[in-house]
Design a protein that fits this description.
about 325 residues, alpha/beta, seven-stranded mixed beta sheet, four-stranded mixed beta sheet, globular, binds S-adenosylmethionine
C-alpha cells in the first residue's frame, strides 16, 4: 500500500487524500516526457543489492566494491539523468559535479538550525534530496522530501537505491498538497520555493499548520537588497526565470513570517549567489544555463533584466501557538 510509512502518523495526516494524489501522480509513468524514467528506474533495480558505505561530507558519497559491469551501469544511469542541478554526489570515483554546490548553502546554515535528532522533517521542493542526506547525519526519525518533478524523483531513487536509507522518503507532492498534514512536522525546510509561487503568505500559513506546536520553519529564499519592508514583483522574467513572483527585502520577509503566525524569527544567513556556488558543469552542461547567463555581463550586481542580482536569505522561526485553538 503506498504511503504505508505515514500510517503511524494517521491523526496528523489525511492519508486518504494523499493516497488519491499519489495515484494521480502515477501518470508520470505514461507521460510523453516522463515515461523514460520507467526504463531508467528499471535499470536501477537491475543493479541488485549493492552493499557499501555512505559518507556525508560536502559530498553525498557512496563507496562500495563494484564489478566493472556494475560500474558501467551506474555511470550510464547517472549520465542518463543529466542535468544534475543539486549536489555534489560521488559514487566511488564517479564525481557528479552538479550545477549547484549545494554544500555551500548547507555550510551556511547547518550549525544554526538546531539538532534534528529524532525529528519528523518535511523538505518542500527537495529536488533530488541532497539536503535530506545532510539532515540524516543527525539521525532524524523521518525526512519526507516532496517535489513534483519526476526527473528529481528518479535521481533520488537512483542514489537511495545505493545508500538504502529507510527513513528518507520521496513523494511527487507539491507545496499545494501540504494542507493534508496538520501539526505533524517538528521541522519544515522551504528552501528556494516561496518565490516560485503566487501566494507566499498562504504557503507560510499552510507550513505553520503542518508544524507541531513547538515546530520550526527554516525558510530560504531569493530576496532583494535594501532597507524597508517591500518586495519586487518582476514585470515578466527575473534572471530568465518565468516563475518568479515576489522577492522580499529581509525586513519584508520577517514581516511576512511575523504576520502569518511565526515567532522568534532569526536570520541564519544573508549571501549573494556567486559563480563559485552556481555554474555549469559536465553534469549540467550547455545548452542548460546557469548564473553566468542570468546576470548582466557588464554589471554583475544586476540580472539580465536589470533587476538587483539574487541575494539569498535564510531565516529560522518557531510556530506561534494560537491561544484560541491551542496549536
Ligand atoms: C530552486 S529549486 C530549490 C531546490 C532545493 N530546495 C534547494 O534549496 O536547493 C526549486 C525546487 O522546487 C521544485 N518544485 C517545483 N514546483 C513545486 C511545487 N509546486 N511544490 C514544491 N516544489 C516544487 C522544483 O522541482 C525544484 O526542485
Amino acid at each position: 500500500m503506498p504511503l504505508e510509512y505515514l500510517e503511524k502518523y494517521r491523526p496528523f495526516v489525511n492519508l486518504e487524500g494523499l493516497r488519491k494524489i499519489h495515484a494521480e501522480k502515477e501518470s508520470w509513468r505514461t507521460g510523453k516526457l516522463t515515461s523514460k524514467y520507467v526504463d531508467i528506474l528499471n535499470e536501477v533495480s537491475e543493479l541488485g543489492d549493492i552493499q557499501g558505505e555512505t559518507l556525508v561530507n560536502d559530498y553525498v558519497e557512496f563507496q562500495a566494491q563494484l564489478t566493472s559491469d556494475q560500474k558501467d551501469k551506474i555511470e550510464k544511469i547517472a549520465k542518463d539523468l543529466i542535468p544534475w542541478r543539486k549536489g555534489p554526489f560521488k559514487i566511488n570515483d564517479l564525481d557528479i559535479d552538479t550545477e549547484w554546490r549545494s554544500n555551500l548553502k548547507w555550510q551556511r546554515i547547518q550549525e544554526k538550525i538546531g539538532s534534528l535528532e529524532g525529528k519528523t522533517i518535511l523538505d518542500i521542493g527537495c529536488n533530488n534530496g541532497y539536503y535530506m542526506w545532510q539532515m540524516l547525519k543527525d539521525r532524524p526519525e523521518l525526512v519526507l522530501g516532496i517535489d513534483p518533478v519526476p526527473h528529481n524523483m528518479a535521481q533520488f531513487e537512483f542514489i537511495n537505491s545505493l545508500t538504502k536509507k529507510e527513513n528518507l522518503k520521496f513523494e511527487l507532492f507539491g507545496i499545494e498538497d501540504i494542507t493534508n498534514f496538520k501539526c505533524l512536522f517538528d521541522v519544515i525546510f522551504s528552501m528556494g520555493i516561496i518565490y516560485h509561487h503566487r501566494h507566499p503568505l498562504e504557503q507560510l500559513i499552510d507550513m505553520r499548520n503542518a508544524l507541531t506546536s513547538e515546530g520550526t520553519l527554516i525558510l530560504e529564499t531569493i530576496g532583494i537588497p535594501g532597507e524597508g519592508s517591500h518586495c519586487l514583483f518582476p514585470e515578466d522574467r527575473y534572471a530568465k526565470m518565468r516563475n518568479v513572483w515576489f522577492l522580499p527585502t529581509l525586513e519584508c520577509l520577517k514581516n511576512w513570517m511575523n504576520r502569518t503566525g511565526f515567532v522568534d524569527i532569526e536570520v541564519l544567513s544573508v549571501a549573494e549567489t556567486t559563480t563559485e556556488e552556481q555554474r555549469l558543469s559536465p553534469w549540467c552542461p550547455p545548452p542548460f544555463q546557469s548564473l553566468e547567463e542570468f546576470l548582466d555581463p557588464n554589471d554583475k550586481s544586476k540580472t539580465v533584466e536589470g533587476y538587483p542580482a539574487p541575494v539569498r536569505f535564510c531565516l529560522k522561526a518557531k510556530k506561534k501557538v494560537s491561544p484560541q485553538v491551542g496549536f
